Amino acid sequence: MDTNNQSILQGSQTTQSSLPSPIAAQTYLENILRLNIGKLGTFYFTYTGSTDWRDRAYKGTIEQVGRDHFIVRDPKNQKYYIFQFVYFDWAEFDEPLNFNTR
After folding, report:
1. Which residues pair with 47 in a beta bridge?
2. In a domain, 2, yes or no
3. How many domains does the chain have?
4. Are 72 and 36 in contact (CB under 8 A)?
5. Domain of residue 63, residue span
6. Is 100 domain-assigned?
7. At the top level of its lineage, which domain of life is listed (predicted)?
8. Would you call 29 helix, strand, or coil by DSSP?
């Protein structure tokens, strides 16, 4: 056991009330999409620096969501696509979204 860090750990203990709010309670884009897995939407992207792929739209169902990406399944051809948030502009959904984190 490293005894050099004991004084640091003892002096840095915090109470429950001073901890940051849980990630689930924050309204980051990834959390909003995660709450709506299974919903059909149209997702709009801009690929800067590309003349062939400048602006694109994809329709599909949200399958999975990560920190920097999300996976959409195209209902027409049953293909899966992985998208990076860095290129994501906005989305339209065919049904109301769930924003409730509880």
Report:
1. none
2. no
3. 1
4. no
5. 18-93
6. no
7. Bacteria
8. helix
Q: Which amino acid is at 48?
A: T
What sign results for the dihedral spanned by CA atoms 93, 94, 100, 102?
Answer: negative
Q: What is the CATH number of the domain that holds 34?
A: 2.30.30.520
Question: Is 28 a residue whose pLDDT tops 90?
Answer: no
The two three-digit tokens of residue 83, written as one number: 């998208």
Q: How far lies 88's CA from each of 3, 7, 36, 55, in Å?
A: 48, 46, 16, 10
Phi and psi at residue 64, to the nearest 5°: -145, 155
**In one letter, which amino acid is 90?**
W
Amino acid identity, position 72 = V
In a domain, 49, yes or no: yes
In terms of Cβ atoms closer than 10 Å to its own Cβ (0-12, 13-18, 19+), residue 69 is middle
| Mean pLDDT for the chain overall | 80
Instruction: Identify whether 82 is part of a domain.
Output: yes
pLDDT at 101 (0 to 100): 67
CA nearest neighbour of 100 among 34, 21, 41, 17: 34
